[in-house]
Structures are given as structure tokens and as C-alpha cells.
Design brief:
eight-stranded mixed β-sheet; Rossmann fold; 8 strands; 272 residues
């Protein structure tokens, strides 16, 4: 599926994630004339993006009829946004939503269409290294799914879920996951400082270690456990650190609690 064939794509909400996806679409071949930006309070980044591509940012969607409507707004305001968008949703419109916690049934009621794909991307989409979970409602056709997949794949990998009930767990793992990694970098740098390293050097070491490890994982298809073992010499320094991280009260139970908390919040957002 070529993005040139999809027709007008309306992005409602030109925030960081919405702009990241839009950049991916344009890079993957969506004509600039087929991208419609709607945001009543655009950021300076959004204005700069629009200027770079000679696009207009509309304050509202009135009179604009998209083939694909992408909802990239905060879940806390989505009901009001959907009410405003109802007039532009027609029989030709496929809806993609990246609003955390908002299920397909609520989207269908709010927009008056069952052609809904609920998605959850993550911020590495900004550099084409994201991963997006997606689930299609019952009224989504094979052609709709192909169009959605083409748009989502412009930002990285796509996984399709058979059960919408799994998307809250996916949100907690990959949607929120980049923040966990960034916090680990902060923690690793702070630990380096505690061992006497200058702050700037500790952060440089922590950042590049994670960047390098991620690049190695991308290049080497071996399981993460094998890659970990490859770094770990028996009775060496890494083994001593891993004995702490892999203890009964170590990283696994901590991450389990963190992911469970994120999933719970995703479910709460869905209930409104």
C-alpha cells in the first residue's frame, strides 16, 4: 500500500507524537497536499513543522473531509473533540486513534462510525524507530487495515493485537516504556556519580551505554538473555551487579509493579 493512494489524512492534535507520525508519513510518500493539520492551539514546533512543509494549521475541522482521521489528542479531552469532529466523519472515513485508554466502542459512539483502529505508538517514532500496537474494530475492512498499517509502519514496527483487552498491557510496556529506559539512564548516571565520577561524564557513560546496547540488540537477533550472558563473566563485576538486579526484590518485581501501575492508569483513562 502506497501512502500516495490513501487520500486526505487529517491529523487532529499536532503535539509531539502527532508531529512525529506526520513526519514519518511525509517521508514515506504521503503528498503534502494530502496532510491536513487541525489544532486550535498549535505549539511553536507545530508552527515550524507547518512552515517547513508549507502547510496550514486549521483551528477546527469544519468543512474538511478526510479519508483517514487520526486522533492524537489527550484522552481527558477526547469526548469534546469527537463531538466537534462528527460532521467531518463520513462513509469514506477511517479513524485511527492514539488516545491512551479510549476503547473502540467509545470512539465509535463518539464519532458515529465503526471503522476504528485503536493504536498506541511510542516516542521513538520521532526517528522511525518506534513500535505501535494496533487493534481493528469489527467494521474495519481489509483495505482499511492495509491503509492503517502503511501509515503506522512509517514510524517503525507495527504489531496487530487480536484482543483489544491486551492494548492496556501493551501501552504499559511499549507506550510508556521509553520513559522507563530514560529513567534507568538517570539512575545509572546517578550511581556513577556516587562512585566518584564527574556528573557530566557519568551521564555520558550512561547514555552511550544504553545507546550502544540498544544498537547491539537491534543488530544481533539473539535473545536478550543471551546478550546479557555474553557480557557476564563468572564471578566478575557484571555478575556481582546482576546478583543485585536479579535478586528476589530486584528489577523484575520492580518493573512488574511499574507496568501494572501503568496498565491500571490506562484502564482508568478509558473509563473517563
Amino acid at each position: 500500500m502506497s501512502l500516495r493512494d490513501i487520500g486526505p489524512v487529517m491529523l487532529v492534535g499536532a503535539g509531539k507524537m502527532g508531529l512525529a507520525m506526520a513526519k514519518g508519513w511525509l517521508s514515506a510518500g504521503l503528498p503534502e497536499s494530502n496532510l491536513i493539520l487541525v489544532d486550535p492551539s498549535p505549539s511553536e514546533d507545530a508552527k515550524a513543522f507547518a512552515g517547513d512543509y508549507e502547510l496550514q494549521i486549521y483551528a477546527e475541522a469544519s468543512g474538511l473531509l478526510p479519508n483517514v482521521l487520526v486522533l492524537a489528542v489527550k484522552p481527558q479531552i477526547i469526548d469534546g473533540v469527537m463531538e466537534q469532529l462528527q460532521p467531518v466523519v463520513g462513509p469514506q472515513t477511517l479513524v485511527l486513534s492514539i488516545a491512551a485508554g479510549i476503547d473502540s466502542a467509545r470512539l465509535a459512539r463518539g464519532l458515529g462510525t465503526g471503522r476504528v483502529v485503536r493504536t498506541m505508538p511510542n516516542t521513538p517514532a520521532q526517528i522511525g524507530k518506534g513500535i505501535t500496537g494496533a487493534v481493528a474494530a469489527a467494521d474495519v475492512t481489509a483495505a482499511d487495515k492495509a491503509n492503517a498499517d502503511a501509515l503506522l509502519a512509517a514510524s517503525g514496527q507495527v504489531v496487530w493485537l487480536a484482543d483489544e483487552g491486551d492494548i492496556d498491557a501493551l501501552t504499559a510496556v511499549s507506550g510508556s516504556g521509553p520513559a522507563y529506559v530514560f529513567n534507568m539512564v538517570e539512575a545509572l548516571a546517578a550511581a556513577g556519580e556516587q562512585q566518584g565520577l564527574p556528573a557530566a561524564m557519568a551521564m555520558q557513560l550512561a547514555r552511550q551505554t544504553v545507546i550502544g546496547a540498544a544498537a547491539l540488540m537491534e543488530a544481533d537477533p539473539a535473545p536478550a538473555a543471551v546478550l546479557r550472558q555474553n557480557v557476564t563473566s563468572p564471578k566478575g563485576t557484571t555478575a556481582e551487579a546482576l546478583a543485585v538486579l536479579m535478586a528476589d526484590d530486584g528489577l523484575v518485581p520492580l518493573m512488574t509493579r511499574a507496568v501494572a501501575a501503568a496498565r491500571k492508569r490506562s484502564e482508568e483513562l478509558g473509563r473517563g
